[in-house]
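Hi W.,

Here's what went into the run:
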Amino acid sequence: NAGVTQTPKFRVLKTGQSMTLLCAQDMNHEYMYWYRQDPGMGLRLIHYSVGEGTTAKGEVPDGYNVSRLKKQNFLLGLESAAPSQTSVYFCASSYQQSYEQYFGPGTRLTVT
Amino acid sequence: QQPVQSPQAVILREGEDAVINCSSSKALYSVHWYRQKHGEAPVFLMILLKGGEQKGHDKISASFNEKKQQSSLYLTASQLSYSGTYFCGTEYSGGTSYGKLTFGQGTILTVHP
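Here's what came out:
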């Protein structure tokens, strides 16, 4: 039982490049979330999903897209990376709303 | 709007107590508390639901004042392992939240021997 896993752990991109971050959970959770964490800002919600095939915007969705084709996976895409997207990205999942969110180990992304 | 945590930082000696507060300007359905150590993922501590009881386990407990839209986290007889950054995550009431959390900016807790 791995819980929530994220790949890759680290990545360096040049401005304008694209990439996809993968989040996988093996707990059969319905709800999945993508957050970014910047110094002094806490965690901010980018996008979320309440089930396979559904996605919705969070607090800071601009510049990101997501997909949830399989219940266990939640992908976060950056189509054209910008230095402002340099951050640590965390994925989380929960059984239902208002339940504990389990976080993945994070992906540290640097855009130069 | 982000909930406000206070204090921003606190330094303790082992065995001392601390209180961390989380205050919202919007009506809350629940408050989640997490602890994050440097370079690691946030780890769940507890959830307080509107109308629910005060929670606690071991020497960490929390309360939720629905009238004031505030929550407090109590750490008693602190241990070195309590060091880290504490975040409150708030879930707003009024409609379906889908579990979306708005996190405070964090409180850095340092425990010295």
